[in-house]
UniProtKB/TrEMBL annotation:
Tetracyclin repressor-like C-terminal domain location: 91-217
Pfam families: TetR_C_23
Residues that span the membrane, as ranges: none
Organism name: Christiangramia forsetii
Protein name: Tetracyclin repressor-like C-terminal domain-containing protein
Length: 223
């Protein structure tokens, strides 16, 4: 008699990407994080060893999720032939537009995981790897810009710029989380205005942009 195969599970060892997908699905379906690696592994027909082969803990997996979102954004940008020829200002704009599109595609998970704990700093721990990635990306941009400036006097400080971009990202992330506009159009406007403001600060022509950004934020706050 032939055996049924329709519901047969294939015990294929999961890779890191599969574990990330399983974890995100669990969080979204149960509206909570798994209580233990043992239970999570058992529920997904694998061993604890299968999990630990790729991640040392759920915390490590959560950090890897943000890293994956970042890498996916870079891959999308690098597929564009025009991106490489963009000036740094346009590259940063492209990065933010792309990254927040990726976040929007995973908005339910992002909102849950960044609001899971009552203590905001606890929620931010998962962004440590992402912080390094974004700061490194920002340093690359400023290094390219400095290489085109013959006089050191006009070169920009990589450390200050990269930290500024990280703070800017956190601001935009919070703005996006609170954004109720259709297709998150307000976030797009905030991205454009804040990026221009940051670059203008480094170009010593900040006043007009800062006033423009301030007016926009005040308008959004009162809306």
């Amino acid at each position: 008699m032939a055996k049924k195969t329709g519901n047969t599970k294939v015990n294929k060892k999961p890779d890191a990407e599969k574990l990330i997908a399983l974890y995100m699905d669990y969080v979204l379906e149960h509206e909570k994080t798994p209580r233990s690696v043992y239970k999570f592994a058992k529920d997904n027909d694998m061993t604890e060893g299968d999990f630990y082969k790729h991640f040392g803990s759920f915390e490590g997996l959560r950090k890897a999720i943000w890293d994956k979102l970042f890498q996916n954004s870079l891959q999308v940008m690098e597929k564009s032939k025009e991106y490489a020829s963009f000036p740094n200002r346009e590259k940063l704009l492209t990065f933010y537009y792309t990254f927040f599109e990726v976040l929007t595609a995973n908005r339910s998970y992002v909102l849950y995981t960044l609001n899971e704990n009552e203590a905001p700093l606890k929620n931010m721990e998962q962004l440590k790897t992402l912080r390094k990635r974004i700061k490194s990306y920002a340093k690359t941009l400023i290094q390219d810009g400095n290489s085109e400036k013959s006089m050191k006097l006009f070169q920009q400080n990589e450390m200050i710029f990269s930290e500024g971009v990280w703070v800017q990202f956190l601001f935009l992330l919070k703005f996006w989380m609170d954004d109720n506009s259709a297709a998150f159009e307000s976030t797009d406007v905030a991205i454009e205005k804040s990026v221009h403001t940051v670059f203008d600060l480094f170009d010593n022509t900040p006043l007009e942009r800062i006033v423009d950004l301030g007016k926009f934020l005040w308008k959004e706050r009162k809306a």
